[in-house]
Amino acid sequence: MQMTFNAIPTKDELNQMQRDLHFYPATTPAPAVLSKTEVEQFNRDGYVKGLRVYSENEINSVRGYFDGLLARVIAAGGDSYSISTAHLKYGPVYDIITNPQIVAIVKDLLGEDVIGWGSHFFCKMPRDGKSVAWHQDASYWPLTPSKTVTVWLAIDKADLGNGCMKFIAGSHHFGHMTYRESTEADHNVLNQTIDNVEQYGVEVVDELEAGEVSVHSD
Length: 218
Fold this sequence. Notes:
Number of helices: 5
Oligomer: single chain
Largest sheet: 3 strands, antiparallel
Distance between the termini: 34 Å
Helix content: 10-25%
Low-confidence stretches: 1-5
Shape: globular
Structural class: alpha+beta
Order of helices and strands: HHEHEHHEEEEEEE
């Protein structure tokens, strides 16, 4: 039996929903993994970063698995951005999102009852001509109220030289932000672009070592 997964709703489907995309602060009174300072930073700035969850040997194993998976996906006609809803298709990805250290971090921010509902290998290949425009994760998701965090795991060392992620610290306090639909000229992997992001906060470069995660408000 062949199964089809549609992880991202259409624009029309999202527009039909009355969504609450306000930020809900973390209120866990006694975090188990994060420090109270890190929880306060998440509430204030919308992210924490540089959290170690895999050893060097462990993340090398994850990287080896991904290399093989990417080769199979490309051979089947996909691309480096198309490995989505991966935990429902590939057992090793399910093992990643249920990693007890990752789950513990998420619980410190969201509370005891959490669901790992999405996963995505997001691979920026050298010189592919693509960009990832400024965007809000929650804008794409059919969730209301939106009480979700994104855990971003670096399987390589991520820095400015290989296209690491950036945040706009404090932008999570603005609710659903105004965006425009991306054009072909944008070469955007996604289909939404938020312009003039400096009005929403301070740019933060999310450089990570392989095996570290950053966690940000959706």
